[in-house]
Design brief:
Strand order of the largest sheet: 1-2-3-4-5-6-8-9
Structural class: alpha/beta
Radius of gyration: 20 Å
Largest sheet: 8 strands, parallel, barrel
CATH class: Alpha Beta
Length: 368
């Protein structure tokens, strides 16, 4: 597995990187139709154009599907567990652990020279029974909290490139931090600081992230998120990376992603565009022709890539899309008419894929 921050390797075959980039730019220059790859050959590989790790989320069952596994091995250099490295899967009601599916993902990543990103240790939405049963006993609760983080981070020490330690700490409207089991038992800020310190003790090397969503669409949330990061750093939390989930709707105004990624970059820490997708059906103006919404979707993917590339190289931790094919997306499970990803349900590259390739190729060409 490549080390954290290492760019993907050179593409195999007789074509040079320069030739592939030139070809991608030529295709893109032909217009939107050219963004779909010819049926005679596979889509251009995303990881071959990125100057940083390019990732996707997975479930363990996806790795057993040759079509999905083939897309992953061709296009990405990093995988994130969609949900099977959260408490909801790994922590049993008895207090024991279930590591079979995370272990399969770790083995897949290692076998294919990919990075594995750990997602997520502490999430406000989860209320494991074992913690509920000891909520009145702060000392016991704190000890169990520490044991959980230590066990999980320790098991994957040396096998992950980083962890989302605190996930979604800010309310949707940006008015306050969330109130939940962890904050009630251990303190609003203290439970976060504690989680970072325990995770760092269990793995002295892996970058430790905070992660949240709607930062590009709710200015108050972005502001509070930044203030939270400042508070954690001031409190001595070994926070070493910032996650921006980037779940967007197709009607997001141009420039919002650019401003958000730039704002998070001011801390000088690695930034992870950690869960990107762009919903067609959640956007306002559903009377707008679908083709226009799909074009807006492609522009947003390109803007996110361009804004991420504008960060200093040392801050480009990874760019992760939240799934490979539309058919596996959580948004399509919510609304079967949505199509938020870079590949359709048959694994065919969409115009959004072409927009990403064009943006990546242009930046690579500009950097020589």
């Amino acid at each position: 597995m490549t080390a954290a921050g290492d760019p993907p390797g050179e593409p195999s075959g007789s074509l040079s990187r320069r030739g592939i980039v030139a070809g991608a730019l030529a295709l893109a220059a032909c217009g939107p139709r050219a963004n779909s790859q010819p049926a005679a050959g596979p889509a251009l590989a995303l990881k071959d154009f990125a100057l940083f790790p390019f990732g996707a989320c997975v479930q363990a069952s996806h790795l057993e599907d040759p079509a999905i596994a083939g897309l992953l091995t061709r296009h990405v250099s990093q995988i994130t567990a969609e949900w099977e490295m959260k408490m909801e899967y790994m922590l049993l009601d008895t207090g024991g652990f279930r590591f079979d599916r995370p272990d399969r993902m770790a083995a897949f990543a290692q076998a294919h020279a990919m990075r594995l990103f750990g997602h997520a240790l502490i999430w406000y939405a989860q209320k494991p029974i074992i913690f509920q049963d000891m909520a009145a006993d702060r000392a016991a609760f704190a000890a169990a909290y520490d044991r959980y983080i230590t066990a999980v981070v320790g098991r994957y020490r040396g096998r992950v490139c980083g962890w989302d330690v605190i996930n979604e700490a800010v309310k949707d409207d940006g008015s306050a931090l969330r109130d939940h089991m962890w904050s009630q038992a251990l303190g609003e800020l203290d439970h976060m600081t504690r989680a970072f310190k325990v995770a760092r003790a269990a793995d002295p090397v892996a970058p430790l992230f905070i992660n949240d969503y709607n930062l590009e669409s709710v200015p108050a949330k972005l502001d509070l998120y930044q203030r939270l990061i400042e508070r954690l750093l001031k409190a001595g939390a070994p926070l070493s990376g910032i996650g921006c989930q980037t779940h967007c709707n197709a009607d997001l105004p141009a420039g919002a992603l650019t401003r958000t990624i730039a704002a998070l970059g001011r801390f000088g820490l690695p930034v992870h565009v950690s869960e990107m997708d762009v919903s067609i059906t959640r956007s306002r103006g559903l009377l707008t022709p679908r083709a226009e919404r799909e074009a807006a979707q492609a522009r947003l993917y390109a803007e996110a890539i361009q804004a991420f590339c504008d960060l200093p190289a040392r801050q480009r931790f990874a760019f992760t899309v939240w799934g490979m094919r539309d058919s596996e997306s959580w948004l399509v499970r919510e609304n079967r008419n949505d199509a938020p990803l870079l590949f359709d349900g048959q694994g065919r590259a969409k115009s959004s894929h072409g927009a990403v390739i064009k943006a990546l190729a242009a930046r690579r060409k500009a950097q020589g």
